[in-house]
Structures are given as structure tokens and as C-alpha cells.
Amino acid sequence: MSKLLDNVVGELSRLPGVGKRTALRLAMHILKMEREQVGEMTASIADFRNNICHCAQCNNLSDEEICEICNDRTRDRTTVCVVEQVADLLSIEKTQQYHGLYNVLGGVISPMQGIAPSDLKIGLLLDRIALGEVREVIIAISASVEGETTLFYLMNCLRKFPNLKITTIARGIGFGDELEYVDEHTITQALMNRREIE
After folding, report:
1. What is the predicted pLDDT for the residue at 193?
2. Residues 6+ apart with CB under 8 A from 151
3. For residue 64, what are the contacts with CB-CB under 8 A and spacing of at least 6?
4. Superfamily of domain 3-51
5. Considering only CA atoms, which of 97, 100, 102 is closest in space to residue 76?
6. How far apart are CA 119 and CA 115, in angstroms?
7. How far apart are CA 8 and CA 30, in angstroms?
8. pTM
9. For residues 148 and 142, is the Cβ–Cβ distance under 8 A?
């Protein structure tokens, strides 16, 4: 194989979820593209990496110091949804059902990976709540061991705000899942989060 091709495949396979075979397909596709298109693509990637920043209020990705969501005065400023990563924020935004603000933690507490509470953007959340406008915090983090640890830690931090409503997203069985194939923890969460049928 060409050393140039080998180098490109090696670099592309560093991306999460991209193995050597997928990297090779991507490299071959890039080779078929017009040189101008490839130049635009690489310039766009370099511009993104060099100029993107994190919002000073919520830790979302932004072109400016404060992101569009935090700057949007039409959003409900009394509600903050706490998520692990920017990708989670984007997933919630796609539903068009939530109109409040966010706090992106930047991960979850994981002693095995060396991620401590001080590595997360919990301080941004606490600072925003301390201003007095926030009435509800929705914790929307994954139902993993690390997620539950983070949830427990956040609950302890938020208890110092006595008038604050703290909620979590519902956990349980996904639409289309068959009950016999669902694990016990998920069934337990589904039972605990049951609701009355209207």
C-alpha cells in the first residue's frame, strides 16, 4: 500500500468508531473528490479546531464567548438541563420539546478513568443557580454506574439550594423493546418511573 494512503488511513482510524476498513473507504472517497473540495474540507476542519470555544455560561460549543442558546432571551431561564456532552444537548435540541438552558458537564465522574468532580463543569451550574433565577434543574445523564455516581454527587451539591426543584429524565424501557430482553435494572427504573394513563 502507498505510504501516503497508509498515513491517511492511520489518521482517519484515530476517529472514534472508525476502524481501518472504514478509514480506507473514506480515504478512497477523498481521493475521488475534487482537489478544491478536499481543500475546503481540510480548511473547515482546521478552522473548527482552531477557533471553536466553550460557552462561558454553559460549556456548550460556540463561536463566541457566550453561545446562541445562552444569548437567546426567548428561552426559559428558570430551567437548566444538565447533560454529559455537547452531543446530548444536540439530541435534546432536535426534539424541539425543551426550551430552557443547559449545563454541559464535559463527562461523568469516573475514578477508573481519573475523572473527578473537579474535572467537570459543575461550578458553572452552581454559579448560575446562585444568581437566583433558576427554579428547576433537570439532570439528563446516562444511566450507567458513572452516571449514577455523578447524579448522586450533583444531588448533594444542589441540596444547598432549598427552593430548587431537581428532576431527572425518565428512565426505563425504550419504545419497541421487548420486555423479555430488557435487563433487571432497566425494568426496575421503568417501574419506578411509571405514570398514570390518562
Report:
1. 73
2. 139, 141, 168
3. 53, 71
4. RecR Domain 1 (1.10.8.420)
5. 100
6. 6
7. 10
8. 0.81
9. no
